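Structure (tokenized):
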């Protein structure tokens, strides 16, 4: 593997598996990770909503039967429920509209822990403007804010078209300092020092606290033979960032050129204290060339990433595309109002009496309207509640019969829940109100599926990498799904014979 250069362009390093630690690679890694987390979250929420639809559709059907006095055919009621649940299909709505719509429809049936998931989804909608903006920044990093041209030029990878593009950008954006610094580096390479000094002074006027600009200004003054001005520029860079070895090294080279050997030794010792390996490498390179070389710097990775996240028309277009892909129908600028509206509907639905919705007892499985809840928030009919509060010495045939009924329901439910858990890990857990376990298994399932489908790649780097990770990532996804299925088989959400 070839040694890869750090983004600073100063020191070589053999990075992990030969991947260059540079802005395009780091951005692609961050971008893929970001989109993977978001995609896994949205897929998990969609699957959770599907589980809740399967769980509460029988109770909706029971309510419709009672509302129509059992005068409507059951098949007609089922078709009506299907029509209501699939309403977003008839609109220009994205898949996340199904999730929101189902949460709104099922709110009265959902238990406390499931409502927390719905609130989390509404929070995501509220934050979606920021979420899509960041995602758009990762998608458009090579097109926005002249990032590609600046990176390629500073790392000596640019084409002939990049320099005119940078010059045009400066004319159209006179308050942007970074391209001026980049163009100054181009002028330094041409030994056009007066023009470089002019550009760097403009950059410093815009960003007087940026030490890189002073460092490059010092190099330009060295080219003109203005050693006093060069010394002052390097010293300004050191004052702004005293922990940067490069500035001390450049100052030592300037002192050495002026035959100020004591000052040169003092500066090189300071640089060695900060980064001995880096100084040794630079001195070895200097000895191999037989002449001193002043070190230039490229834009740091974090600043490059922050720059690509600046608002622009490209990012706005990409963000709107991401929002439309997930939601559609409603423009992204309305996301905050959509979230507030959903929250208000949840709030007002909370005032509807609980006895207006059918509940299924988590112990005996019977449907009821009037009942209570367990300490964990699961629904419980009054008869099962009576068992809890009944003293043991007051055992009656009614109590014994009810206890037997609970035992039979658990025994009957065991094979059904176990099979459903194997079909979709987490589905059986939601059906028996084990929300935490269901959430973990649904999320793990989503992660495994996305690893297999995407291979971990949502966006690609500008720099072709010489390693292929997608096959390994897909195998990892298969391992995750396999391990999850084994776990679901060995540890079902319900214990037999409770």
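Design, position by position:
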């Amino acid at each position: 593997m070839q040694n890869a250069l750090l983004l600073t362009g100063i020191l070589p390093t053999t990075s992990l598996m030969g991947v260059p630690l540079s802005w395009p690679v780091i951005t692609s890694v961050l971008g893929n990770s970001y989109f993977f987390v978001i995609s896994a979250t949205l897929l998990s929420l969609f699957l959770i909503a599907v589980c809740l639809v399967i769980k509460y559709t029988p109770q909706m059907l029971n309510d419709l039967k009672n509302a129509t006095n059992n005068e409507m055919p059951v098949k007609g009621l089922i078709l009506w429920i299907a029509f209501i649940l699939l309403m977003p299909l008839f609109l220009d709505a994205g898949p996340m509209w199904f999730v929101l719509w189902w949460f709104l429809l099922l709110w009265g049936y959902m238990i406390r822990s499931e409502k927390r998931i719905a609130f989390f989804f509404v929070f995501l909608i509220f934050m979606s403007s920021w979420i899509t903006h960041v995602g758009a920044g990762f998608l458009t990093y090579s097109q926005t804010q002249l990032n590609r041209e600046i990176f390629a030029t500073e790392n000596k990878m640019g084409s002939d078209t990049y320099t005119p593009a940078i010059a045009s950008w400066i004319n159209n954006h006179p308050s942007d300092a970074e391209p001026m610094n980049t163009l100054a580096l181009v002028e330094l390479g041409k030994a056009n020092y007066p023009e470089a000094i002019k550009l760097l002074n403009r950059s410093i006027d815009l960003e007087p606290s940026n030490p890189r600009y002073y460092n490059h200004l010092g190099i330009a003054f060295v080219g003109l033979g203005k050693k006093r001005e060069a010394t002052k520029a390097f010293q300004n860079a050191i004052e702004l960032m005293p922990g940067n070895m490069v500035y001390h090294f450049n100052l030592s080279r300037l002192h050495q050129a002026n035959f100020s050997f004591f000052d040169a030794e003092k500066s090189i010792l300071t640089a060695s204290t900060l980064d001995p390996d880096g100084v040794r490498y630079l001195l070895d390179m200097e000895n191999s060339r037989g002449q001193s070389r002043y070190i230039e710097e490229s834009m740091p990775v974090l600043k490059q990433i922050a720059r690509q996240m600046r608002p622009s028309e490209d990012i706005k277009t990409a963000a709107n595309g991401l929002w439309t892909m997930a939601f559609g129908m409603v423009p992204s600028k309305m996301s905050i109002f959509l979230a507030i509206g959903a929250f208000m509907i949840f709030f007002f639905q909370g005032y509807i009496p609980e006895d207006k919705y059918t509940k299924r007892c988590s112990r005996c499985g019977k449907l009821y309207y009037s009942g209570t809840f367990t300490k964990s928030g699961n629904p419980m009919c009054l008869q099962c509640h009576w068992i809890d509060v009944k003293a043991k010495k007051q055992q009656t045939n009614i109590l014994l019969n009810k206890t037997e009924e609970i035992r039979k329901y658990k025994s009957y439910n065991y094979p059904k829940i176990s099979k459903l858990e194997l079909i979709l890990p987490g589905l059986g857990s939601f059906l028996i109100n084990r929300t935490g376990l269901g959430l973990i298994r649904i999320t793990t399932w989503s992660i495994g599926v996305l690893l297999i489908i995407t291979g971990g790649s949502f966006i690609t780097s500008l720099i072709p990498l010489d390693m292929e990770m997608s096959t390994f990532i897909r195998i990892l996804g298969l391992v995750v799904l396999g391990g999850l299925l084994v776990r679901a088989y060995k540890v079902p959400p319900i214990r037999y014979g409770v």
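Reviewer-requested clarification: The two ends are 60 Å apart (CA to CA). DSSP finds 22 helices and six strands in the chain.
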